[in-house]
Write the structure tokens for this entry.
Amino acid sequence: MGACTDQVPTFDDGAAIPVDAETVEVLIPFSEFGRDFQAFGGFASQADLGRLFVAHEYRGDFDARTLVRIGAFPVSISVFPEGESSTVPDSAYVPLGGNLVIRMDTTRLVPDEAVELAAGQMEAGEWDIRTAKWNLAVDTLGGVVQWDEPGGGPTRSLGSAMWDPQEADTLVIPVDSATANQWRDADESVDRSVRVESRSPGHLLGINSVEFRGHFQSSVNPDTVVTVVRGSVGTTFIYTPEPGVTQEEIRIGGAPARRAYFRVELPDRFEEGSAACELLPTCPMELTRDRVVYAGLVMQTRPVEPPAFEPLDTLRMDVRPALAADRIPRSPLGTSVQPTPRTFPPGVFAEEGSTRVEVPMTRYIQDLLGRPEDPLGPGQEDEERPSTVALFSPAEPSGFQFGSLFGPGTEKEPFLRLILTITDGVELP
């Protein structure tokens, strides 16, 4: 048997096997497929970010302060006794003072003028690096402790200095001998903690590191002064206001990070009167896996409030199923429903308007509609698919700023976009 070019070898009529298919786009509002929307915050901590910030009245009323714990002083220093060529340990050295050296971020947050920063020794007796906030020194399951004053409690001033980004990338604040001696003898009641803040309104500044360079006089050889660098053993930053979360908004990212969860409940069929039926050639109609060619979750960005939290860097968003819905928000997450996380460039969350965002999730939606049968054997029983998904930033935290999208019940709430191919099948003549 044979045929020429595109002729069917068994029939002269190429249309002998009729295929009648129609492809349509269906838009399903959130109210018809989404359930149990919940927004949460508190994932990770500012201390996990690896970056520090200070601000004073930035973009309105945003303030941020950096908190640093200086490492313990050495038990002894090594010095050369007069006339000797070998060093000996000196544990009776005398601190003469030193300098607090602050390395600034000169790559992303560079002011166009000189700014003033101030440092103070913190007087709080108890505070936690990982959970400290503007109003709370400790916020753990073991208890909550408030600052004596919001913003890190009272401090004893160490001094201030001007930083001109055109001249240097560091800022130096002298530390007197009395403070250095106190830090050396510090016990549990005296903490080597420093608060750094900005006194120049309108600027957001980044800090890469804070260290103390101490000058120590030897007791073995009083003419010898040794400089020892003590880095930080813990850093974080605190800020105000703290926006938290709202159940009418999808917030992604931040420090601590924010997430949104909701359950996908697809209809078995599109009934008369539903929004989907308005775009279908016939209704009611069954919604089956084989009819879904494409599925995407469509959302709209919205301006971030307060404006100080508008992302300055690229923000990414991932969508993953929650494997244990009864353990939300601490449920483990499955693999991503999209090929790669969605990327938001800086500016899409500005006040100018909203941007449409679409997350492809075809395979996930198909799996919720059932597993395809095996043509070579009996089909396996369907496993229960996690129907609850989490929207979050894959790097938590990636910055203290966050992205904002319209949530359920708002004017631009999310919707599901389906591309369906509808056919009655193939009938042989």
Summary: The first helix runs from residue 177 to 184. Residues 21-44+243-374+384-423 form one domain. The chain has two domains: 21-44+243-374+384-423, 62-240. Helices lie at 177-184, 362-368.
